Amino acid sequence: MARRGSVIKKVGLSGVAWAIGFLLFFPILWTILTSFKSELDAFSYPPKFLVFDWTWENYEVIQQRSDYIGFAVNSLILSLGSSLLALLFAVPAAWAFAFAPGRRRKDTLMWILSTKMMPPVGALIPIYLIFRDTHMLDTRTGLILVLMLMNLPILVWMLYSYFKEIPEEIVEASRLDGAGLWQEIIFVLLPMAVPGIASTLLLNIILAWNEAFWTLNLTTTEAAPLTAFIASYSSPEGLFWAKLSAASTAAIAPILILGWFAQKQLVRGLTFGAVK
Amino acid sequence: MGRVTLQNLAKQFGDVVVIPDASLDIPHGEFVAFVGPSGCGKSTLLRLIAGLEDASGGKILIDGVDMAHTPPARRGLAMVFQSYALYPHMSVRGNIAFGLRMARMPPDQIAARVEGAAKMLNLTDYLERKPRHLSGGQRQRVAIGRAIVREPKCFLFDEPLSNLDAALRVQMRLELMQLHQSLDATMIYVTHDQIEAMTMADRIVVLNHGRIEQQGAPLELYHRPQSLFVAGFIGSPRMNFITGAAAAKCGATTLGIRPEHILLEPLAAAATATAMPQSPPIWPEGIAGKIALVEHSGADSYLHVDSEMGRLVVRCDGDYQGGVGRPVSLWPHSAKLHKFDQHGMSMNHATQG
H or E segment at B349? Predict the structure, then answer.
């Protein structure tokens, strides 16, 4: 009896989980489906779920009209560039917090995180003026800098927590083995932290890819990424559901595919065979 | 060469003084064991020598050069950690070769040295494996291999055997002693296990609250402990301590007698004539008591006896048949009696010297 009860419970729970999953995924699915409809089908009521004339037309139109590829390249450069640059600063910072703690480690870490609590609008005007005067408005370099600074606190925190899990004795062993500071970081620390670094990097690419506030406010055309591309479809052409859906699908597709392939890296799991 | 000299070495973490003032001279080739209970500062002392902790004061001379503020990489020492601390992402070969690679040794020389060390430590068949595919004993050997290929001035061991099971521990103990003989290197070994220290070391340094309580050859510490602390720490089972009137009669605050230096009544009759020529003046009739517990270890039996002097432990023959509750009479070997004053310091030497 108890066993049958638990089977029913398992089936029930799985059902509920699938239902919730589907519910959460449905808007995305609907967007994808709509992007393959003609504008007429997209508006029809009752809505057509799967039975309609599938067409690539919307994608052709958006590429012709607003150069999707150009925006996508910008998105790629901005998110990758800012994440890699941030990593360059975050690794030494996280190393210092994890293995050479000072008296104010906690305070400093909290201070770093607290910068994320300020609404970005508060910094918009000074940054806008600085960008204007240094001619960095609508440049990739400028945006990479801003996105890097925006995500740096999260990177430092994530890497710090990964580094903390590495047994300090291994790092100490490398010091006694004659490794200098950079050799210790490059040959010992980083290889052991690969899963952590990969997932940190991935999360930051996603965050930078989705970032809309700074990218919309500091760019016009040259450095504008996909967020600006979608935005250009939403207000003036709000009635063209199929084209907006195609634009949205095209904007999220790369990051969805990346996330799908990197799932394994996202799941942390380095067993430390060295200790015990 | 590998001579390590500590001069007035001190270490404090914030306001906590871990090592107030330690001075020690370890000549080349000596095997020194730091022992003491946990928290006595023995690991801190080792980490100071290694350079993993910054000294708050004093000097660490390695072959005459003060290295108290030199980074560990440039002290020319090698350390074996309790957790082995192998690099999990490198093969056994990579682990052993790492220090040589850091020293920019030519690859063919590295290969030769790694092969040599692997042969010495029976690791030749495992060179391409990752540490997680090795047993505890093999990992320990890799850690030792990593240390010996660098041909350091001095080896530092931080409780290296405490993660191994009992049988392996005894075997590795022998291998380490063999290693010490064949390498002719200075070794500093930290352990909380006094048996390891007694069996392996040329000299034992007993630490208590960061202070060097006593140092000397193992048997010297066993026979002539200078304080209650050392007397209680060296030797297993522990020395029996007797306080009160009996001690006062000898002019001491505490009397100490080891379990192996007490005879049981039936044997005592025969032994008093030969083995114990000077019968103890304090207990002409022996100490009467009742057996409370018996531990058989095979070769020996240990009787825990409730007597008028409190609970005393006595070593006797492994085949001892007497059970719990049996009345016995104990005969301490008077020449082996230790006397301590009210500060816990030994009075034996004062009277002898």
Answer: helix B348-352
